[in-house]
Amino acid sequence: MKTEYSFFERVYEITAKIPYGKVTSYGAIARYIATAGSARMVGWALNNCHTREEYIPAHRVVNRNGLLTGKHHFGNSTTMQQLLENEGAVIENDRIINFREKFWDPSTELD
DNA sequence: ATTCTGACAGCAA
DNA sequence: TTTGCTGCCAGAA
Fold it and tell me: 10 Å Cβ neighbour count for A83?
């Protein structure tokens, strides 16, 4: 079956559903949309997230290591970290220490 | 149609 | 624990 909505739309939809103070990984999102393995595409989608009219909390999406890989895409490299810390995340060396604690799996939580 | 790229994930050392 | 290499899918040129 063909995807009614673009791959990007799915990513935006899920990303927008991430609860405050929670974070998830690209793979988790990719897995939820039944396209596990295309985690890289998730990043590509978020790259175009700024084209969306709605606000996308992309700062809550990090890689499975909890590393803020996309911080550079927020204009300033510190923006993403600031936002996450503002939500209670403990970041050290661009890496979320309590990532496991803040992790939010859409396929499990959202279902 | 073919080729390149990407904000990754998984596994090995 | 970190670092490095490989495989992956979907979209853009």
Answer: 17
Would you state the pLDDT for residue A3? 56
Which nucleotide lies closest to A15 by the C1' atom and the CA atom?
Answer: B7
Domains of chain A as residue ranges with CATH: 4-103 (1.10.10.10)
**How is residue A105 annotated by DSSP?**
-
CB distance A30 to A45 below 8 Å: no
Q: C-alpha dihedral over A70, A75, A76, A80, to 10 degrees? A: -40
Nearest to A99 by CA among A17, A8, A24: A24
Prediction pTM value = 0.91
Protein CA at A41 to nucleotide C1' at B6, angstroms:
7
> Distance (Å) from CA A55 to C1' C12?
24
As a whole number of angstroms, the distance between CA A80 and CA A70 comes to 8
